[in-house]
Amino acid sequence: MHWYLIHTKPRQEHCALQNLEQQGYECYLPLIAVEKLRQGRLAMVEEPLFPRYLFIRLEEGASGKGWGPIRSTRGVSRLVSFGNEPARLDDRLVEQIRTHEGRRQPQPLFTPGERVRVTQGPFAGLEAIYQMREGENRVMVLIELLSKPVRLGLAPASLRKVG
């Protein structure tokens, strides 16, 4: 048995995973916790570590159930291959990803020192420097007003990354 790589349709990783598992295939979709804005609040959500990709374990040469049913599975775009050969992965690589997946720290939406733009309220359009998260509904930023840095507390939904 070896691991192979499946390319999924956009944002269909979970759909492809579920449909492949229902057909009896062993699959793996590595996930990572990320901070996202949800209804104006910062929330932790799990996203695929490798967007549009998942791993599938098949018998040598993929002769087990064949590629046909996999290709026609809802959510699957194609099999990753080089020429006519499916891209086979080293088992150790997949095991390393599995081992480290649970140990990863959640990725914040903004990082301290990052440049952001205020999109709402009286400071809309101004650039600021993200400082830190303060509670669930507030973040602290530095905005230059009258040639002096001023620390402000804003709703996370009122900020966007610059660039």
TrEMBL record:
<dbReference type="Pfam" id="PF02357">
    <property type="entry name" value="NusG"/>
</dbReference>
<dbReference type="GO" id="GO:0006354">
    <property type="term" value="P:DNA-templated transcription elongation"/>
</dbReference>
<dbReference type="InterPro" id="IPR008991">
    <property type="entry name" value="Translation_prot_SH3-like_sf"/>
</dbReference>
<dbReference type="InterPro" id="IPR006645">
    <property type="entry name" value="NGN-like_dom"/>
</dbReference>
<dbReference type="GO" id="GO:0001073">
    <property type="term" value="F:transcription antitermination factor activity, DNA binding"/>
</dbReference>
<keyword id="KW-0805">Transcription regulation</keyword>
<dbReference type="GO" id="GO:0005829">
    <property type="term" value="C:cytosol"/>
</dbReference>
<dbReference type="GO" id="GO:0003677">
    <property type="term" value="F:DNA binding"/>
</dbReference>
<feature type="domain" description="NusG-like N-terminal">
    <location>
        <begin position="1"/>
        <end position="101"/>
    </location>
</feature>
<keyword id="KW-0889">Transcription antitermination</keyword>
<dbReference type="InterPro" id="IPR043425">
    <property type="entry name" value="NusG-like"/>
</dbReference>
<dbReference type="InterPro" id="IPR010215">
    <property type="entry name" value="Transcription_antiterm_RfaH"/>
</dbReference>
<keyword id="KW-0238">DNA-binding</keyword>
<protein>
    <recommendedName>
        <fullName>Transcription antitermination protein RfaH</fullName>
    </recommendedName>
</protein>
<comment type="similarity">
    <text>Belongs to the RfaH family.</text>
</comment>
<comment type="function">
    <text>Enhances distal genes transcription elongation in a specialized subset of operons that encode extracytoplasmic components.</text>
</comment>
<keyword id="KW-0804">Transcription</keyword>
<dbReference type="InterPro" id="IPR036735">
    <property type="entry name" value="NGN_dom_sf"/>
</dbReference>
<comment type="subunit">
    <text>Interacts with both the nontemplate DNA and the RNA polymerase (RNAP).</text>
</comment>
